[in-house]
Design a protein that fits this description.
CATH architecture: 3-Layer(aba) Sandwich
Radius of gyration: 19 Å
Shape: globular
Helix content: 40-55%
CATH class: Alpha Beta
Number of domains: 1
Structural class: alpha/beta
Number of helices: 9
Strand content: 15-25%
Largest sheet: 8 strands, mixed
CATH superfamily: Alpha/Beta hydrolase fold, catalytic domain
Strand order of the largest sheet: 1-2-4-3-5-6-7-8
CATH topology: Rossmann fold
Number of strands: 8
Length: about 270
């Protein structure tokens, strides 16, 4: 057998596959509790298909709604080989750059079952794509979305793990330890003025008392919304202490990737 002929042929095949591979994105209309929603599905057609399923990741946006930022994160996940679905929490096309309006939109969820239920509706859409390994699903969220994925995990949703990026630390229900299946990674800005020392202490105590499998990582110099490159402009517009931090963004994304390798049992 002439190996010298097989090697170029193999390289040509690999190149052809690489050229064929592309990131597919599409809007997905769905409904929950009478609210018409529109999420955003993203995947690499070379790594995910009806015959070749991949791990899935639900993405829950900041309190601004399902903006281009959350969609870009779904696309980044698709480039990593995951099937990503950016959920709509407010309603099709409902976004804002006004903090007062965002606060009003997000307030309807905090402390209520609706937060986990609306996120579950997004998770159901991810699973219904037919592209996902049902036993390898995680959820990530930003700010309000970080709080939301915590609530989703505490509800007992079938998640391997969750990642909260600069999310508010919501109270942990007393019964959550018994039903939470997900491992937890919290990526926190060390000087995030939106998270009080009391909330941080209560979260840590609940995690330890409930023997949750969790990691809590603080990033020096990072304030709220540290992963969003548009945070500085939003902060100036609304006079709120949010800002992008490139180092914290890069480090937290790397920690997420490492976390996914663990919870999905990936060797690469």
């Amino acid at each position: 057998m002439n190996l010298s002929r097989l090697i170029p042929a193999g390289l040509a095949l690999a190149a052809a596959v690489a050229l064929h591979a592309k990131i597919v994105t599409k809007p997905v209309a769905y409904e929950h509790a009478g609210t018409k929603l529109e999420g955003y599905l993203a995947y690499d057609d070379a790594s995910a298909s009806a015959d070749k399923k991949s791990p899935g990741v639900l993405v829950v946006p900041e309190w601004w709604g399902l903006t281009a930022y959350a969609k870009s994160r779904a696309e980044q996940l698709a480039h990593l080989g995951y099937v990503a679905f950016a959920a709509d929490m407010y309603g099709a096309g409902v976004t804002t750059a006004d903090a007062k309006k965002a606060n009003e939109l997000a307030a309807q969820f905090y402390g209520k079952p609706l937060m986990a239920e609306r996120a579950q509706a997004g998770l159901d859409q991810l699973l219904a794509s037919g592209l996902v390994q049902a036993d390898k699903v995680a959820a990530i969220g930003y700010c309000f979305g970080g709080s939301t994925v915590q609530a989703l995990a505490y509800s007992g949703a079938p998640l391997a793990g969750i990642v909260s990026f600069h999310g508010g630390l919501i109270p942990v229900p007393a019964e959550a330890a018994a039903r939470t299946k997900a491992k937890i990674l919290v990526c926190h800005g060390a000087i995030d003025g939106f998270v009080s020392s009391e909330a941080l202490a209560a979260f840590t105590k609940a995690m330890n008392d409930g023997k949750f499998d969790y990691q809590f990582i603080s990033y020096a110099g990072a304030v709220h919304a540290f992963t969003n490159p548009g945070a500085d402009e939003l902060g100036k517009l609304n006079h709120i202490p949010v800002a992008y931090n490139a180092a914290a963004d890069q480090r937290s994304w790397g920690h997420m990737k490492q976390f996914f390798k663990e919870v999905f049992g990936e060797s690469k």
